[in-house]
Amino acid sequence: MKKGIHPTYKTAKFTCACGNVIETKSTLGDTSIEICSKCHPFYTGKQKLVDTAGRIERFNKKYNVKTDK
Hints:
alpha+beta; 17% helix; 3 strands; Rhinovirus 14, subunit 4; 2 helices; 69 residues
């Protein structure tokens, strides 16, 4: 491998919004994430609405979907 062109691969902590901390190695460093395997509906088996940055509202507005609230 060529010297000086590769990013450093160091220990990093990924902190989820639910409070779970995952320690791994990454080129990014310490990072915060919104959802992890501890709180993701696929792994927990619980139905949970995951809305990132209003995507559901934008979809409903774009396609004029009526919601009962």
